Amino acid sequence: MLVDMPMVEVIISASVLVSGILLAKLEKPNTVIVAVLAGVAGLFHGYAYGEAIIGATAAPLVAYLLGFTLIQASISLIAFKVAIVVKESSVSNPNFLRFAGYIAVGSGMAFLAASF
How far apart are CA 80 and CA 87, in angstroms? Predict the structure, then answer.
């Protein structure tokens, strides 16, 4: 079964932008909305990663998946550590968390502009 998802790069870039907007808002976003947006973003992110290995033979596929796993684990660990620092810093300075959101918004806007 062939599935082709349109505008993958645009949706991924928009997900970074929307995540930043939600982080920069003063009020806490609705958990259901965040879960739905995360699911959609994950679907498109997974599609983009999977699209890179379609048609690969076993050896490159294993190497890709091993490298992918190590990189994603490293990124997750770093993101977790950064989130702890941001959370601790936002206790003493509430604008610190909003600033992190603004950085994500800027990154999302740059990625979105590059997608067109």
Answer: 10
The count of other CB atoms within 10 Å of the CB of residue 19 is 20
pLDDT for 36 equals 93
Q: 44, exposed or middle or buried, with CB in 10 Å at 0-12, 13-18, 19+?
A: buried
Entry pTM? 0.77
111 phi and psi, to 5 degrees?
-65, -40
Cα(101)–Cα(17) distance, integer angstroms? 9
Domain ranges for the chain, please list them: 8-115
pLDDT at 29 over 90: no
pLDDT at position 96 over 70: yes
One-character DSSP codes across 31-100: HHHHHHHHHHHHHHHHHHHHHTTTT--HHHHHHHHHHHHHHHHHHHHHHHHHHHHHHHHHHH-THHHHHH
Share of the chain above pLDDT 70, in %: 98
